[in-house]
């Protein structure tokens, strides 16, 4: 065993940070004081809140398009309306180099590249491992007030956590865009709202699911979203896939099924809560699959990743703050933060990890490409499961361990196969260029 003292020190730090340990009793089923606490009811209430912005916005867009406002419009608000509804003529814009491709500037040395890679890997691991552990702490454990005679209570509003994450991500992306040169693009602003809405709903499902299932189960289920992403890609973007992509998708499904079936007994007290967790996770996977494919289509406007981050988070903040305000949940959440300073600290740190984690994603893909980024994040998922089991005492059977191994084996096979395909494509392009010369 390598350096057990260092590992114990890390676990002790996390225990002190979160105020929880593996010896704590497992959380009970999330209490519901009224029908309004039922997750499906809250889901539709949130949807209704978003509709107060989305529906009038859609009607206005249709009105301006029908009136041909692009040619007849005048006034102070015309530039804003034109940008929101019609965008810019993409033919008049000079396309910049896509930000999602890996570039090496000035042929840096191997040592410099290694240090950059270490920086990216450490930033991603620290940001998202801390984010995952905090996510489970906030949604599954009680907070005890400092007031005498008060009993512990749980935080219930997943939407407020989504709002906290998005407002900080919007601020970070806005500052980054203001300080750096960004490419001009012709995307109508309202198109960000579709990705924003699905992103809000997927994040809400992600938080809400932890009330009914364990964090390791959620991580593995998220790893299996490659299947619905492929299906959504065929539906939205009419993409085609190779045989090895279908093969690894099936392997991931087998591994996830092994883990869920081996660890399902005794993890929760009722089949109803398990069913709710599965339904919410399914919602997360569907919404997240749509988000990634819709953002993929938006990148055709030659925008940068940080511009995408700013646009999506701008609408996310508008949707969530209106919905929270209409429900009176914003005041309740602030009151909960006042009663429980620990929660305020955890929620703030959760938002910091989420915002800076997104920046690390963009920087890593920019410098080293998507394949290296996928390897780092696959390792992060494995470490997240291990860390959650150590901190919160989740049991993993032998069959469940095999299922985890199958999932990550399939993920690494996907990375390896994709990198080989890209190398073959580059060689074919080089050979074609030589023949033309």
UniProtKB/TrEMBL annotation:
A GO term for molecular function: 3'-phosphoadenosine 5'-phosphosulfate transmembrane transporter activity
Membrane topology: Multi-pass membrane protein
Gene Ontology cellular-component annotations: endoplasmic reticulum membrane; Golgi membrane
Transmembrane domains' residue ranges: 38-64, 243-262, 274-294, 306-324, 344-363, 370-393, 399-417
Top-level taxonomic group: Eukaryota
Compartments, record wording: Membrane
Entry annotated with the keyword Transcription regulation: no
Keywords on record: Membrane, Signal, Transmembrane, Transmembrane helix, Transport
A Pfam family reported for this protein in Swiss-Prot or TrEMBL: UAA
Leader sequence residues: 1-22
InterPro entries listed in its UniProt record: EmrE-like, SCL35B1-4/HUT1
PANTHER family noted in UniProt: ADENOSINE 3'-PHOSPHO 5'-PHOSPHOSULFATE TRANSPORTER 1, SOLUTE CARRIER FAMILY 35 MEMBER B
Entry similarity comment: Belongs to the nucleotide-sugar transporter family. SLC35B subfamily.
Name of the protein in question: Adenosine 3'-phospho 5'-phosphosulfate transporter 1
């Amino acid at each position: 065993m390598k350096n057990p003292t260092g590992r114990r020190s890390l676990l002790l730090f996390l225990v002190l940070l979160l105020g929880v340990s593996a010896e704590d009793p497992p959380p009970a089923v999330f209490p519901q004081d009224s029908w309004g606490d039922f997750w499906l009811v809250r889901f539709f209430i949130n949807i209704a809140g978003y509709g107060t912005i989305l529906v009038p916005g859609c009607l206005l867009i249709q009105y301006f398009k029908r009136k041909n406002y692009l040619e007849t419009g005048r006034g102070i608000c015309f530039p804003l309306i034109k940008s929101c509804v019609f965008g810019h003529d993409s033919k008049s814009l000079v396309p910049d180099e896509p930000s999602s491709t890996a570039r090496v500037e000035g042929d840096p040395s191997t040592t410099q590249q290694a240090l950059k890679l270490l920086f990216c890997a450490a930033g991603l691991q620290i940001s998202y491992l801390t984010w995952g552990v905090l996510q489970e702490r906030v949604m599954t454990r009680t907070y005890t007030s400092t007031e005498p005679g008060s009993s512990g209570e749980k935080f219930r509003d997943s939407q407020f956590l989504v709002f906290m994450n998005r407002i900080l991500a919007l601020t970070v992306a806005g500052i980054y865009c203001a300080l750096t040169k960004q490419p001009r693009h012709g995307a109508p602003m309202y198109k960000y709202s579709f990705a924003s809405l699905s992103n809000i709903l997927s994040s809400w499902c992600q938080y809400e699911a932890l009330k009914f299932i364990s964090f390791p189960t959620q991580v593995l289920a998220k790893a299996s979203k490659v299947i619905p992403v492929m299906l959504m890609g065929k539906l939205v973007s009419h993409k085609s896939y190779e045989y090895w992509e279908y093969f690894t998708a099936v392997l991931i499904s087998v591994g996830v099924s092994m883990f869920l079936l081996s660890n399902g007994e005794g993890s929760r007290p009722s089949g109803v809560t398990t069913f709710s967790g599965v339904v919410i996770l399914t919602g997360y996977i569907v919404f997240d699959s749509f988000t990634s494919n819709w953002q993929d289509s938006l990148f055709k406007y030659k925008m940068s990743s940080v511009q995408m981050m700013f646009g999506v988070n701008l609408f996310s903040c508008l949707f969530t703050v209106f919905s929270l305000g209409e429900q009176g949940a914003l005041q309740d959440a602030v009151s909960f933060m006042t009663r429980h300073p620990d929660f305020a600290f955890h929620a703030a740190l959760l938002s910091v990890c989420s915002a800076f984690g997104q920046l690390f994603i963009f920087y890593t893909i920019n410098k080293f490409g998507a394949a290296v980024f996928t390897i780092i994040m696959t390792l992060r998922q494995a470490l997240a499961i291990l860390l959650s089991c150590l901190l919160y005492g989740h049991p993993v059977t032998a069959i469940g361990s095999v299922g985890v191994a199958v999932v990550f084996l399939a993920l690494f096979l996907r990375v390896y196969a994709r990198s080989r395909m890209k190398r073959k494509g580059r060689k074919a392009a080089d050979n074609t260029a030589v023949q033309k010369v």
